[in-house]
Amino acid sequence: MATMEPLTLISATPSPFARMNRIALALKDIPFELKNEIPWESNTETPKYNPLEKLPILLFPDGRPPVYDSAHIQEYIVRKYAERGPKLITGDVDLDLQIRQIVVLSEGCLDAIVLNRWEERREATQQSQLWLDRQNRKVDGAMRAFNALVTASKDAGKEYLVGDELSIADIAVVCTVTFIDWQNMRPGWAEKYPVLKAWVDALEQGKEFVDTKPVMFDLTEKIV
């Protein structure tokens, strides 16, 4: 196979969204350079590539238009590099719809966490408890759904959520649950969902997961 010129993934060090893409790129042995930014700080280059000013962003060495949004990047990776194992999807339309639905669920949960955290950074008198409650319901609902998915898979004697091999669905759930744990958002979740905990811990032993654990950045500019 010809040597590939590396891609560039713009990320933020704690980002579970970018972590999904980093794991997929590493599993498929796609060379890439990681560039870390804080997308809301004044010196960021993020708006240059994504008008929504969000990460992650995938850049190409030949100057093609960038790809942004973690799920969209995952879709590009599995389709563009389908010949590189692991496939990370099944190739079956109905099963792959399930896989992508789980990715959507994971990203929605992570979006709720981000909205929750920013609201909590406001002055106490400016916070909306109704807004916080809504985001927390999303997180709790997603955790129940993750647990149900893993339990159903285990009951069926399967190791992975959809199909017989690791997919972007498994990656998405692991990145989401471990981020919740890392943020200490749901103390006691491991005792509440022991099957989910054991499943996540097993996948987290993989090198690609170990190498991409989140690291907090230093927030220096106030935006809320």
Explained architecture:
- Helix 1 crosses helix 6 and helix 4 runs parallel beside helix 6.
- A hairpin with a 7-residue loop joins strand 3 (57-59) and strand 4.
- The protein has helices at 16-27, 46-49, 70-80, 93-120, 129-155, 168-182, 189-192, 194-203, 207-210, and strands at residues 7-11, 32-36, 57-59, 67-68.
- The model has no long low-confidence stretch (mean pLDDT 93).
- It is globular, with a radius of gyration of 18 Å.
- Strands 2-1-3-4 form a 4-stranded mixed beta sheet, covered by helices on one side.
- With 224 residues, the protein is of the alpha+beta class.
- One of its GO terms (molecular function) is maleylacetoacetate isomerase activity.
- Pfam families: GST_C, GST_N_2.
- Residues 92-224 form the GST C-terminal domain.
- Residues 5-85 form the GST N-terminal domain.
Assign the structural class, choosing from mainly alpha, mainly beta, alpha/beta, alpha+beta, or little secondary structure.
alpha+beta
Strand content range: 5-15%
Q: Helical region count?
A: 9
Main β-sheet description:
4 strands, mixed
Low-confidence stretches: none
Termini Cα gap: 49 Å
Rg, nearest Å: 18 Å
Arithmetic mean pLDDT: 93
| Helicity range | 40-55%
List SSEs in N-to-C order. Answer: EHEHEEHHHHHHH
Widest beta sheet: strand line-up: 2-1-3-4
Give the total of beta strands. 4
- Global morphology: globular
Pfam families: GST_C, GST_N_2
GO molecular function: glutathione transferase activity; maleylacetoacetate isomerase activity
Protein name: Glutathione S-transferase domain-containing protein
InterPro entries: Glutathione-S-Trfase_C-like (IPR010987), Glutathione-S-Trfase_C_sf (IPR036282), Glutathione_S-Trfase (IPR040079), Glutathione_S-Trfase_N (IPR004045), GST_C (IPR004046), Thioredoxin-like_sf (IPR036249)
